[in-house]
Amino acid sequence: MDATPRWLTSEQAAAWDSFIRMQEKLIGRLSRRVQADSGMSASDYIVLAKLTETSGGRMRFMDLVKLVEWEKSRMSHQVGRMAKRGLVTKEECPDDGRGAFIVATTAGYKAIEDAAPVHVEHVRRLFINALTHEELDTLARISNRVLAHMEKQPD
């Protein structure tokens, strides 16, 4: 029972294409800047930012996986690379023998503290400064609506 595809209208396709092009270009440029400015990969930055936003700089491995929307294997490899460089450590979870905590080290805190101010300036230069206050509010509302809608949809 092949259903006929429901193609996007020209207006829908234009909105989608513009969004994807903007997102890919923005993330690509920010990723290259983080690497050039701090020597960290964008993945290093994301993991350290999420860890250091939590109390104690620690998070259960699976909570971190879900938060950044990565596969377990990707996170495992990322954490392994970061641990070798001394940015994070992995600690066993005392109440769950199979669980683990990922913890930002002193070096990890220093790395994100050094990188974040420069990163924020690039976000401001490439994204924030292009929009009015009203446009930023509208974008936040739209983004939150899409996120809430996605939560109700099967993965």
From TrEMBL:
The keyword Calcium does not apply. It comes from Nonomuraea angiospora. It comes from the Bacteria. InterPro entries: HTH_MarR-typ, MarR/SlyA-like, WH-like_DNA-bd_sf, WH_DNA-bd_sf. This is DNA-binding MarR family transcriptional regulator. Keywords: DNA-binding. GO terms for molecular function: DNA binding. Residues 1-148 form the HTH marR-type domain. The keyword Iron does not apply. Gene3D superfamilies: Winged helix-like DNA-binding domain superfamily/Winged helix DNA-binding domain.
